[in-house]
């Protein structure tokens, strides 16, 4: 995420580190590079210029040159400005209606349908809501089907009227249906076009007027940079929407959209989409994002994700197994699956302070556990529960079955062995101290 921008900002701050003494000249040089980094990230020229001007003013105000660590202070000023640029505080969704009506808007392909599903899933699983998804795309039957597929996947009902060609009516009927069937959130997915056109704008304006949503959200593909900002402006002029959803942040986005949109439409980014799966949705925290961009990581989000996946019941069971020396490869597999649910590896590494930079040139596979899982799946149930029985002959068979090399099987066995020993140690007599040492 925003790798290029992070890289360039890091280089900009290097200008300061390279000099024994910090002068007004090299602060100016640094800020020039910061501005260049923003422009390269496809941030609008005026926004980038104002940005560095504000940092410079603050730097002068706080007398950066005479502080003990001028470099760090400058990084902090840049972080604060980046946070402001992306919206300052975190913005929630207004769920006060009964039912709450949420209207989704945006161009075709922006990720509207996918996001409607993600939001429904989020509200259902995290906020205990009973959402109804509504298909209002009357032009593309495939779009209606797509929403039904998404709905099935997350166990959320989808309301559609394939024969009806009036989106206003469909949306109104859906709200009636929601009221009489106990749904408390109605998410209306609308038709998009490839580019802004009058007909589409008129249609969404009509739907908007008729259903008076509590939340109108504008969905935009973050890969589209400056275009994203222009589209946002066009939609905002018509809908005066409440918030922005930035999708495809997992891709190779330069960051321009995330950094410019707030300044142009003055609406907060509320959520981001970070993948095609239904779980790939994150609340947008401007400060955490700024920290990530500056390579400071995002430990808070990392811990939160871990907590979300943490199941106390499972943890107790696991502890018992370890105590009885029964920890096997099936448990190992469960652990891997929990880590995987936290997100893709690249994303997770980006949340560890400094790790992005350190691992910049390391190719991180999207599915880093693919081989490990293949090896475990090639073991018999007996081998999984009693790894000690895996001899050379069995190893060869497992390697063949999983399409890996025998060295890879050996390596996994070794890692597993070390892990089991460590877990055993933590449970032993000295374990309590060890746990305490680790903050447990
Ligand atoms: P719509 O036309 O606006 O409804 O867009 P869709 O929801 O059909 O999404 C268009 C494409 O983008 C689909 O292939 C989605 O799987 C993909 N997509 C949507 N959101 C994301 C995301 O956050 N990350 C990635 N990588 N792909 C996404």
From TrEMBL:
Show the CDD domains listed in the entry: SRP_G
Domain SRP54-type proteins GTP-binding residue range list: 268-281
> Under which EC number(s) is this enzyme classified?
3.6.5.4
SMART domains hit by this protein: AAA (SM00382), SRP54 (SM00962), SRP54_N (SM00963)
Q: Which InterPro entries match?
A: AAA+_ATPase, P-loop_NTPase, Signal_recog_part_SRP54_M_sf, Signal_recog_particl_SRP54_hlx, Signal_recog_particle_SRP54_M, SRP, SRP54, SRP54_GTPase_dom
Read off the domain note. Composed of three domains: the N-terminal N domain, which is responsible for interactions with the ribosome, the central G domain, which binds GTP, and the C-terminal M domain, which binds the RNA and the signal sequence of the RNC.
Subunit and partners: Part of the signal recognition particle protein translocation system, which is composed of SRP and FtsY.
User: What is the protein name for this chain?
Assistant: Signal recognition particle protein
> Which organism is this entry from?
Flavobacterium ginsengisoli
- High-level lineage: Bacteria, Pseudomonadati, Bacteroidota, Flavobacteriia, Flavobacteriales
